[in-house]
Structures are given as C-alpha cells and as structure tokens.
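DUF971 family protein structure dump, as promised
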Amino acid sequence: MSHEGIRIVSEETARRESAAETKLPQSAVTPAKVRVKKTEGTGVEIDWKDGHQSVWTFPWLRDACPCATCNEEREHADRQPGEPKPKPQGLLQMYQAPARPLEATPVGKYAIRFKWTDGHESGIYSWDYLRRMCQCEVCLNAAQPTKLSS
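structure tokens r here:
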C-alpha cells in the first residue's frame, strides 16, 4: 500500500490551514492604514477597515515569510510561521542582528514585500495572509482549540 501524498502536520498547522479555507470579509483584509516602522526598527502595524488592529515585529515577519522556499523549510523543520529557526549549539554563539527590512514595497493593492537585511526578498505578504497571522491576543485565543469541560 502506497502512502504517497500523505502529509503529517501539527495541530496548529491543521488549524491554520482550515482557517485559510474560510473566506474573510473584504473589510477584514483591507487595510485602512499601514505603518512600517523601519526607522524605529520595531515592526508593522495595520489598522483594518473592520476596526481591528494587527502588530508584528520584523523578526516575526521574517520568520513567517510566505515564499515557497521558506514555507518548505518550515514544514521540513516542523516550525510554525513566525517561529525562529533554532540556534546552532556551540561553544561560541555568534551575535546575529535581528531581522530588519531595508525596503518595504507595496505589491498592487493586495500585499507588501520586504527586502531583508539578510538578502531575502522573495516573500509577498498578502493582506489576507497578514490578517490570518494576526498576533493579537484576541486572534491567538480564537486560534486555540476549545477545551470541553467534563
């Protein structure tokens, strides 16, 4: 019996993929205001047309890059979007500066693209992707499975 095409995913990945299949209202994926805090080096803030606000740090965004190469690497390593790569173990840990964008460029009316200090620039962060990856407490709690009381 062949098992080709079978993919084992974590519970979090399954939840995110299921949520990705649900169409969000247009107001939930349309930014009213986007602030890329490049000078401060802190991150991105988006006020959505439905009144919600999302905030991400630059390191989180770099670790959540939606490009095919980064997605494949995360799946292989069983990491979630935004989860950093484990640091190599060794006697002398080399300092690595946090990820920061050199440029942030709009992509049509549907996304933003970053050129990162590590040279990576192939990820296109759609508004839909960013809204689904919101890191606010309300969204993170909504993504958690509900526990049945006994």
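The beta strands are 31-36, 43-48, 53-57, 101-107, 111-116, 124-126.
lmk if u need the other ones
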